[in-house]
Amino acid sequence: MDYLVAVLLPQLLHGLVFGAALGLLALGLTVIFGLLGVMNFAHGELYMLGAYAGIAAIGVTQSFWVALIVAPLAVGVVGAVTEVLTLRPLYRREPLYGLILTFGLALVFREAVRQIWGGDMRRILPPFTGSTPLLGMTYPNYRLFLLAAASVLLLVIWLFFTRTRAGIIVRAAVQDAEMLDGLGVNVRRVFTLTFAGSAALAALAGLLMAPEFTVYPQMGVEFILLAFIVVILGGMGSLGGSVVAAFVIGIAQSLFSLWMNPQRVAIAIFGIMIVVLVVRPRGFFGREGVLE
Amino acid sequence: MKVLGWRAWLAFAALLAVPLLPFMSKFYLLLAFDALLFGAVAMSLDLLMGYTGLVSFGHAAFFGLGAYASAVLLERGVTSLWACLGFALVVVGLYALVVAYFSTARRGIYFALLTLIFAEVVFTFFRYTQTFGGSDGIQGVAAPTLAPGFAIDTPLRNYYLVVAFLLGAYVVCRVLVTSHFGRVLVAIRENEDRARFLGYNVQRYKMTVCLISALLTGLGGALYPGRSAFATPDLMLWTVSGELIIMIMIGGLGTLTGPILGGVFFVVLQEKVSSYVSWYFIVIGLVLIFIVLFMPKGLLGFRRMLGFRQWRATA
After folding, report:
1. Measuring CA to CA, which residue among B14, B12, B10, B65 is closest to residue B40?
2. CA B69 to CA B83: how far, in whole Å?
């Protein structure tokens, strides 16, 4: 019982927090994949840009909360401009080109950030400190806030996709963009806005997670692989699948790290991934035959 | 069978004459070594990417594994180049067998991601295993010897070694793609299902070409510690695999000579730009974006179309 409360429970909660953040990232990836057919290698860099835009905004306004609004908006604009300038001409080509193009974008973003802010590690202080007694243990307040914020965000996104006209249009575009075009919807604008939205979501995740992790130009490179794994595990293009898979990976990662050292954890996660790709490449909820 | 045309022989003669140029200092010889080595590795990847249509995002692991195999031997006093190459073949071959078996069962993006994840496993293993130096890798190994008493310890000897390797690898690749085997690979790229209906065991073909490409890449990696005296896990980072893909895209998919040029161009560009500005990755990223947007067939794109016409004429 003591083991349960003192060791297992905090780790489980931590896994939930991590999984929720991962879910925000993976949702953007999977929507972009479903919509544009592009596996966005620059998504991790948008996540990183969010943290740095947050640092800039905090530097000006001294407020974490203002930054939480400004940074995603700024990165969303970057995303929209990027989509119009580089991705739009590629939609009719093979997915391979999108993959390679976004790899180039990632290089540019990473190096631009290194030039502006330097390559060393930075920290964002959490907006509040302290911890709360919870179920017989104490848990940091910021992590509780993180869990709440990410859950609310996931709920809002779910409501957006199920209850609003805009969300339904995006889902329709994932299903059949040509048909939607025929119905008189400006599909190009849908693509651009969706890309901007996914960029803003990644940025938000980046800034929210920044007080928990350190901020440095390479931070996206390490996170994006996990997000890829989540997207595939959940099934390419499946929104619900991504969220479920994000929690599975988040919890698996933090539970594994109770018993294994970090590299074994990484290898175990990769191992899960390889098994899934080989045995059931469409993941938990993916449609059969998508890009197989 | 005439494998190499006169242009290829001319090119290799020119490569042999390169060290005679008056400005070829040791520094430039080493730069030329890197350029040709990565050119050769990019060419090996082109077998997979350009001819079979399989995008591997894990070739850095084959390269790094080859480098580690040879560095481990050199570190322990086995300095024979042939032993290093042989050991690299065995190690890379075993690993590639596993990767090829599982990855080729899937197509498209799934193949790319499987190779990427296998490579990450290898990277993570070497990055954290202290036997192999952890994140520092294996440093300060001795130069390999071609024959007893003949060490490849000068930039000039290293350069000629890599030219020989490039020639060998090029002949292997060229013979492969002009053979029946190579035609089947192209058929798989163009329409996998149709190739299967024609009775070809598609997965066996894909596995074989995967293996050959990996072995050539591993051999290239095995030459690397002889030049740099180290093997580090950074050689296996997935961004290195991405750079190999960039080289192929610059030069032109499915041309063999294109990726060599692309590799040379990339290495020289990186060196030249980085000596002027510190933000060379931005330049490289922009070059890549430009190529994808405006010249998706790369520098040699036009020749490839000509090549196709020749095929049809002879078929």
Report:
1. B12
2. 10
Give yes or no for a contact between A54 and A41, defined as CB atoms under 8 angstroms apart.
Answer: no
Q: What's the CA gap between A213 and A229, in Å, rounded?
A: 20
What confidence category does residue B310 fall into, taking pLDDT thresholds of 50, 70 and 90? Answer: very low
CB A213 within 8 A of CB A146: no
Q: Is residue B5 part of a domain?
A: no
DSSP letters, A70-139, are: HHHHHHHHHHHHHIIIIIGGGTTS-HHHHHHHHHHHHHHHHHHHHHHH-SS-B----SS--EEEETTEEE
Domain ranges (residues) in chain A: 2-121+137-279
Interface membership of B202 toward A (CB under 8 Å): no
Closest CB to A274 among B118, B286, B293: B118
- Between the CA of residue A211 and those of A45, A145, A255, B162, what are the distances in Å? 18, 12, 22, 49
Average pLDDT over residues A132-152: 81
Which token pair is A95? 């997915």
If contacts are CB pairs under 8 Å, which of residues 73-102 in chain B contact chain A?
102
Helix H or strand E encompassing B151: strand B150-151
CATH 1.10.8 for domain A2-121+137-279, yes or no, is: no
**In angstroms, what separates the C-alpha of A87 from chain B's closest C-alpha?**
9
User: Coil, helix or strand for B133?
Assistant: coil
Residue reference for tokens 């890309």:
A195
Domain that holds residue B141: 24-314
CB contacts, 8 Å: B243 with chain A? none
Q: What is the pLDDT of residues B107-163, one digit of tens each?
A: 777 888 889 889 988 998 888 888 888 888 888 888 888 877 788 888 888 899 999
